[in-house]
TrEMBL record:
InterPro entries: Glyas_Bleomycin-R_OHBP_Dase, Glyas_Fos-R_dOase_dom, VOC_core
Gene3D superfamilies found in the cross-reference section: 3.30.720.110, 3.30.720.120
Transmembrane segments: none
Protein name (record): VOC domain-containing protein
Organism: Wenjunlia tyrosinilytica
Location of the VOC domain: 6-125
């Protein structure tokens, strides 16, 4: 029997929950659903994954996870009109840490990085050259 998944949520442990929450709200249209000391839950009305931000060290985490932080991962969103999104984010002052580029396999992408070092990548898929 398959599991009936009704939503997807990505939980990120960061040092400054408010800074990451403000980043995703300002630049990516998330809205705050719930919040408490060291915790915020963010959502959108479309297919984007929900986000939970937890402060590093928060006791709700198992002891072996409390001191870890989101690192070495990329939160990727597939979009259309990627060049327009890069320009809008650049104009809004978002920290573009990898400018728009196109890979030979048909991926157009750019990255921004939030105040806690969480890398967000926007991706648009196109037909590769010669396909």
């Amino acid at each position: 029997m398959l599991i009936d998944i009704t939503a997807s949520t990505l939980s990120l442990t960061v040092d400054d929950v408010a800074a990451s929450g403000d980043f995703f709200t300002a630049y990516f249209g998330y809205r705050q659903v719930m919040a408490a000391d060291g915790f915020v839950s963010l959502a959108r009305e479309d297919a984007a994954v929900d986000l939970v931000l937890l402060r590093r060290g928060i006791p709700v985490l198992p002891p072996e996870q409390r001191d870890q932080r989101a690192a070495g991962l990329i939160v990727a969103f597939t979009v259309t009109a990627i060049a327009e999104h890069e320009e809008r984010l650049r104009q809004a002052g978002a920290p573009i840490t990898m400018p728009l580029r196109e890979e030979p396999w048909g991926e157009r992408l750019f990255q921004v990085t939030d105040p806690n070092g969480v890398v967000v990548q926007l991706v648009e898929w196109t037909a590769p050259a010669g396909a």
